[in-house]
Amino acid sequence: VVRRRLLQRYEHQPFISCLAGFYSCRWKRYQRERTEPGKCCCSMRECMFFPLLVAAFCFSLVFLYTWGEGKNDYNGFDWYNYGNLGFWFLWSLVILIVAAVLFAYISLLLVLAMCLLAEGQQLYLHWSHKIGTFLVLGFSISSLFALSILWRDHRKTVRLSFQVTAPYLHVGAIAIMVLLAWPVALHAIRADKKVTQVVIVGPYLAILLFLFLIPLGMYSPCIREMGTLGPKPALIGHRGAPMLAPENTEMSFLKTIEHGGDGLETDVAISYDGVPFLMHDDTLRRTTNIQEVYPNDTGKAASFFSWDALQKLNAGTWFLKNKPFVGMGSLSKADQNQAMNQSIYTLSSFLRLADSHNKLVIFDLYRPPEKHPYRNLWIRKILDVILKESKIKRHLVLWLHNGVRSFVQSVAPGFQHTMGRKAPVEDLLKHNIVKLNLVYTDMSSEDIRKYAEANITTNFYVVNEPWLYSLAWCSGAHSVTTNAVHLLKDLSQPLFLMTPQQYNIMWILTDLTSAFLISLIFAL
Q1: Coil, strand, or helix at residue 277?
Q2: Can you give the residue ranges of the GP-PDE domain (predicted)?
Q3: CA-to-CA distance for 260 and 255, rounded, in angstroms?
Q4: Which of 65, 336, 406, 471 has the most crowded Cβ, counting Cβ within 10 A?
Q5: Does residue 462 have a cis bond before it (omega within 30 degrees)?
Q6: Average pLDDT of 176-197?
Q7: How many C-beta atoms surround the C-beta of residue 38 within 10 A?
Q8: Phi and psi (nearest 5°) for 185?
Q9: Which residues of 227-237 are buried (b: 16+ CB within 10 A; e: fewer)?
């Protein structure tokens, strides 16, 4: 009888096979190599490439956060591209999807690498993933650079977002450090030299200590004592309710009123025969069907059309076709029919509507271009409509135009005079300014408080996102101009609102729990 002795048992490693397969395309066991104690986790070439993988992860994360927090201005970004390209498309949404996909891809590669290190496997990134890493790194860096050049105010938006998201970003960063403790500890234990262990563990502990202490320098107006929160900011519909109806139309303003808006904002131009009407763009191409009615005049300034010609245009069908906002809900059949029958709205009708519902009005006035018959008479014409035709209650008018303010104050006392930029309190009081209308990136709780002490209120535009509205609320803003009255009206309290005691508990518990888990991982 011949007895055969089993010399070696083959051990299946399905988990490691999957890790190495997805990371290196090495699905067979003989293709893989283990890292011997005290040896480097990969070849010199792979060691040089791994920092690029980490850099791609960091830059893609920064860009995804930066672009995600810029959602408030997506419509402005798409409108900018429309002006340059000549057709409407939701480029902002495409960029967001691409950024999310690339970040998910590079995050998966990094997680696979960490798991392989934890299992003692040598790293070898497949050439296709190396190309993908370079693409992610290049896309993220070039996109961040383009944002810094073309959209400089976006950096201010990101800084503002930190005031409400920083406490939660801190918790997320601590959680990532806890997850990283596992591969760091295993790799340090396998190192046979103290210097190597210090090189591995030292930076990790330094970053961890920094994250533990960073809340000491953190500020958020939404971290405040109970009972110190001011009233909810009033909501002024930006061109009405442009997420629910075509902008600057009767339907749009009625939607704002229907959803409880406190005021209406619009833009005023003057037709060639002297009729003030509502239009934001220089031309009629984006918000009317001029290509169908006057195909040879699509580039012509809106102010060079007579009122009779303007009345022949439809101002609503473009809205149903282009869907100008990300996340727009579907309209009811009745709303679709109403939108399809909207026309260009006159200033007189707008003011009568606001007066009948007791709503504040604020408008940007566009001076007619050269060779326009009303170029030097436009202010008088607009004042005639306000004072004689519509006869709106004067305290409802927030007069913004600064060019002839003293003249307007003399002929139309009672307007609430509003300034479109920050200025010393003394200068504002000298010119009888009672309100500031500021871009939201100028938001500062200190400035709001300083102006409020002089009975000067602040309005910020354009505020669409709940987090930004919450920040304005916590900072003490009196009102905001928004495209999303229907969404912000339902907010009962600011997002991320907490007391200092609640935040301290969250901070201390996070640090203590993470310190315990990391110590446990290193001990085991």
Answers
A1: strand
A2: 233-492
A3: 9
A4: 471
A5: yes
A6: 81
A7: 10
A8: -65, -45
A9: eebeebbbbbb
* Bridge partners, 399 (sequence order): 417
**What is the distance between the alpha carbons of residues 494 and 517, in angstroms, rounded to a whole number?**
33
- Per-residue DSSP letter, 3: P
CATH no., domain 235-490? 3.20.20.190
471 within 8 A of 221, measured Cβ to Cβ: yes
C-alpha–C-alpha distance, residues 306 and 317, integer Å: 21
Q: Tokens for 98?
A: 């691409």
* CB-CB contact of 38 with 191 (8 Å): yes
Using the CB atoms, write b or e for 415-424: b if 16+ within 10 Å: bbbbbeeeee
| Nearest residue to 266 (alpha-carbon basis) of 247, 283, 285 | 247
Per-residue pLDDT of 380-393, as tens digits, reads: 999 999 999 999 99
As given in the structure block, the two tokens for residue 478 are 């009196």
Token digits of residue 51: 């920092």
What single DSSP character describes residue 330?
P
Cα 275 to Cα 151, 370, 416, 441: the distances in Å are 36, 17, 24, 35
The residues, ordered by sequence, that sit 6+ positions from 333 with a Cβ below 8 Å of its Cβ are: none
Residue 282 has pLDDT above 90, yes or no: yes
Calculate Rg over the CA atoms of the chain: 30
Q: Name the average pLDDT for the chain.
A: 90
Integer Cα distance of 65 and 43 in angstroms? 33
CB-based contacts of 246, cutoff 8 Å, min separation 6:
252, 287, 315, 316, 318, 319, 339, 342
End-to-end CA distance of the chain: 49
Q: Where are the alpha helices (DSSP H) in 387-455?
A: 405-411, 425-430, 445-453
- Per-residue pLDDT, 310: 98
What is the rounded distance in angstroms from the CA atom of residue 465 to the CA atom of residue 165? 13
- 411 contacts 127 by C-beta, under 8 angstroms: no
Kindly state the tokens that stand for 29.
């066991």
Q: What angle do CA 254, 256, 259 make, to 5 degrees?
A: 110
User: How far is Cα 378 from Cα 372, in angstroms, rounded to an integer?
Assistant: 10
